[in-house]
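One such given next:

>
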Amino acid sequence: MNGTKKGTMATTRIAWVLLLAVFSVLALVGCGGGGGDGKEKEGGGETTAAEAGTTVAGGRTTPPELAVTTVELTPSGNSGTSATANLTDTPGGVEVALAARGLPTRPGTEHIADIHEGGTCDDDRAGSITPVVYGLDPLYTGQDGTSSSATSIQGVTLGDLTSGAPKYVDIHAAATGEEALPPSIACADLPGTGGEETTAAG
């Protein structure tokens, strides 16, 4: 009788040990599966702004769904000034980022920049200056002859600026007080507006 009791207790202990072992294995498998799902979501589902964006002049990053047009301003006359203009569609309008090089004036000098409509850079360089439709933030010559600015033009789209009548963006010489609008020192036609390819004028 005593031996039978001991045998039954031993069998019960073995059964409990086996059950615990089974539960432990199931728990480990469950945790491993859950961790794998979480890792996959973290690595494959998240996209950082740096990965998705496009860097424009000034170092800003724009979402890929926003259209960007880049034009290169070439020197007018013998100015030696050139620039890059990035025009980016935004929810409220268009941001124009200018980065100029080779400004021919001393540090701190102001240079007007704007967008003209009704003509091309060739027209401007020939002395036929068309009206300004959008003024841009001015550029101020840096110690190394460079400068940059960013202007938000509200209520327009990139499509508006790159269609219809010819348009061009330019940078003007420093004001002398003698003329209403100083001559252009760098210019680029906006694509899609009927302007010819911009070339440097001698």
Notes: The helical segments are 2-45, 49-52, 121-125, 158-161. Confidence is low (pLDDT under 50) at residues 2-6, 32-59, 196-202. Residues 1-46 form one domain. The first strand starts at residue 54 and ends at 55.
